[in-house]
Specification:
Elements (H helix, E strand, L loop, with lengths): L8 E12 L3 H19 L6 E5 L13 E4 L8 H11 L6 H8 L2 H11 L28 E5 L2 H13 L4 E3 L1 E8 L7 E8 L4 E12 L29 H9 L3 E2 L8 E3 L7 H5 L5 E2 L10 H7 L13 H13 L5 E3 L1 H9 L4 H16 L3 H9 L9 E5 L13 E2 L42 E3 L11 H22 L11 H8 L1 H9 L15 H15 L8 E2 L1 H18 L7 H26 L10 E2 L7 H4 L1 E8 L4 E8 L12
Parallel strand pairs: 1-2, 1-8, 2-5, 8-15, 16-17
Antiparallel strand pairs: 3-4, 6-7, 7-8, 9-14, 9-18, 10-13, 11-12, 12-13, 18-19
Helix pairs in contact: 1-5, 1-13, 2-3, 4-13, 6-18, 16-17, 16-18, 17-18
Length: 661
């Protein structure tokens, strides 16, 4: 093993633009960057760019396994209605400027997907007619369209690769830390990472950086254990790197308490959206009752007025009702796939029925093959037997039905004049509230650091298409920033030798102490990444409103979690890495710890239960709009290892009264 780890080769590279990540946001940025970089070169600005991904671009990110629907396509819908929908699903607290801006851009990305070869379902008579030419898609809801998406990510990645060129893409290189500027601590200057294939460390100096490394999974103990251990709904390689690296660089985070707890097929984590929206299946309790339609449910949800009156009940409140059914002894909860398919088949021929069943199964084969394995193991099938539904463990993400992420600069051309309701609201050009725009769209509060997709907070429901579009929006501003600041070369605030030593600390821990014990995994001088992750999951699950407590916590429990997490952070300095794969796992768990700490701090600060069904503060069980209809933001100080949390005023830029019945 000593021969495997010697002194690593150090490769240094100076860039104008650095993209960290390989998912839909990164691919959108790469695709959009191509023509803008060519235009900049013609104008005399020859900008250097590189996309760095820890995986392979073709199968990287949340869409890696495939997808059966594009969940954000407006078509004839109004971007303002889209912004209203996002706000109502996230219990009223979103950035209207960000969601509206995305709504007016997202369809162009979907049109590109189809142009590149993505099969999109069309209504009868419109087969073969592109969306951009007026083709009418098959919708599974107001905002969703159905696709044959097993190769969705490969199609999108190919366009990104062609736009940048293979020489501008580095795969199997994991970035673990952003580096600030030597002369300006609130400015980005570069990033450091290592190869997963070679004994090599990479140091990138850059003028501008787009951080799009996904959301955060596996900070809570998963519901599946034993044979199913490690199964999650969101991809396991989303390890909080976006949030952790941004926080360490000094970026302002927002709404890190806004977690997502999806209801999925139990044990397999299979998707339910197409079943509910397209196949019209209903969720029923153990007695076969459509519990969401019961009169007492309306009474239960009245405590959450006006959000209970949204045209589509918010995701967290639907969870709240499901959990209430289980608590009152009417579980398990099932999805009635048998009745749904049976009803659809009443007017079909045997051939059409077979096609319908194939489409139903393809929904899983497109995006969650493991669910088919669960059915096979139980000798079952969705047309023969109903399957259990259950909420998963919590996830942190900003592109689905969650709103956590980083505070970014919004579009300068959107806003509303000061109203009687908000007479004291400070304004800047463009009529956005003070602190919502500072010159470059999608830039964080750290100069030169941009983000998109899961990285952008307070603007959920982007999904795959919106993440791609948001990457495109961000990179245009990023290119302009790089042009505007080309005369200021980046200067790293940390010597290269110190960066190398920090990245390879887990390697040193192993090499220095591996001979202390005869069992390689049992050693008092180091901890394996797997052991550390299990401890993190146990802390978060038992004290920070995980599965085992029914998503409940309180101030005292969070205080216990805080103490245990502090000790875990100390032990994380003793992480070991016996090979490059374990070095990856060590750094992923370092990022998870900081993302988990941000979530914990925000849960402590927000003294209400803003998202019942996703989490409950039992000491503050109500939704308190009078005091807490605001953004909760935070800044981390990497020198003191401390957090500062504060409120930012919420403001509706779009009339929301029409969102409710």
């Amino acid at each position: 093993m000593a021969g495997v780890f010697g002194k690593p080769e150090v490769v240094e590279e100076t860039l104008d633009l650095l993209i960290i990540g390989g998912g839909m946001g990164a691919c959108g940025a790469a695709y959009e960057a191509g023509p803008w970089l060519r235009a900049a070169k013609q104008a005399g600005h020859d900008l250097r760019i590189k996309l760095v991904d820890k995986a392979a671009l073709d199968r990287s990110g949340a869409v890696a396994q495939g997808l059966s629907a594009i969940n954000t396509y407006l078509g004839a819908n109004d971007p303002a209605d889209y912004a209203r929908m996002v706000a109502s699903d996230l219990m009223g607290i979103t950035r209207d400027d960000l969601t509206y801006d995305l709504g007016r851009h997202v369809d162009d990305s979907v049109h590109r997907f189809e142009e590149w070869g993505l099969p999109i379902w069309k209504q009868a008579g419109d087969e073969g007619k592109p969306l951009v030419a007026g083709g009418v898609p098959v919708r599974s809801g107001k905002w969703q369209i159905l696709i044959n998406g097993e190769s969705y990510k490969q199609i999108v990645a190919e366009a990104a690769r062609r736009a940048l060129g293979p020489e501008c893409i580095a795969e199997h290189v994991v970035i673990v830390k952003l580096i600030n500027d030597q002369h300006d601590p609130n400015r980005i200057a570069g990033a450091v990472g290592f190869s997963l294939r070679e004994h090599r460390i990479y140091i990138y100096r850059c003028t501008a950086c787009l951080l799009v490394a996904g959301g955060c999974v596996s900070i809570f103990r998963p519901r599946s254990v034993g044979e199913g251990a490690g199964l999650t709904w969101y991809p396991a390689w989303n390890t909080g790197s976006t949030y952790a690296m941004a926080a360490e660089a000094g970026a302002e985070l927002t709404m890190m308490e806004s977690r997502f707890v999806p209801v999925r097929f139990k044990d397999g984590y299979g998707p339910v959206g197409a079943w509910f929206l397209f196949f019209k299946a209903k969720a029923v309790n153990a007695f076969g009752e459509d519990y969401l339609a019961k009169p007492e449910v309306h009474q239960l949800l009245e405590a959450y007025f006006p959000y209970n009156r949204a045209y589509v009940t918010p995701s967290c409140l639907r969870n709240h009702v499901l959990l209430n059914e289980i608590r009152e002894g009417r579980g398990p909860i099932y999805i009635d796939t048998v009745s749904a398919l049976g009803k659809l088949a009443e007017s079909m021929t045997p051939k059409e029925i077979k096609h319908l069943e194939a489409e139903a199964c393809e929904d899983f084969l497109d995006m969650c093959v493991g669910q088919a394995g669960v059915w096979a193991g139980e000798n079952s099938a969705p047309e023969k037997k109903n399957s259990e539904l259950m909420p998963t463990e919590p996830y942190l993400l900003g592109s689905h039905s969650g709103g956590c992420g980083i505070w970014v600069s919004g579009p300068a051309d959107m806003g509303a004049p000061t109203t009687e309701e908000h007479p004291e609201a400070e304004r800047i050009p463009g009529h956005l509230p003070s602190g919502w725009n500072w010159g470059y769209r999608s830039m964080t509060t750290v100069v030169g650091l941009f983000t998109a997709a899961d990285g952008v907070g307070a603007s959920g429901h982007k999904f795959s298409s919106g993440s791609h579009a948001e990457g495109r929006i961000a990179v245009k501003a990023m290119i302009q920033f790089a042009i505007d600041h080309r005369d200021r070369p980046p200067q790293l605030d940390t010597p290269v030798d110190e960066l190398v030593a920090e990245v390879y600390r887990p390697v040193r821990n192993f090499l220095e102490h591996r001979d202390y014990s005869t069992a390689i995994d049992v050693n008092p001088h180091y901890i394996t990444p797997r052991m550390l992750q299990l401890r993190l999951q146990k802390i978060m699950d038992e004290y920070a409103a995980g599965v085992s407590t029914g998503y409940r916590t309180n101030a005292k429990m969070l205080e216990v979690a805080e103490g245990k997490l502090a000790m875990l952070k100390e032990d994380a300095l003793r992480l070991r890495a016996k090979d490059l794969h374990e070095l990856l796992r060590a750094w992923e768990n370092q990022h998870r710890i900081l993302a988990a700490e941000a979530h914990l701090k925000h849960l402590q600060f927000r003294e209400e239960s803003r998202y019942p069904g996703f989490y409950y503060r039992t000491d503050f069980p109500a939704v308190d709009d009078a005091h807490w209809k605001c953004f909760v933001n935070s800044v981390y100080d990497r020198k003191t290892k401390s957090w500062t949390l504060f409120k930012r005023k919420h403001l509706d830029l779009i009339d929301k009264t029409v969102s409710y019945r």
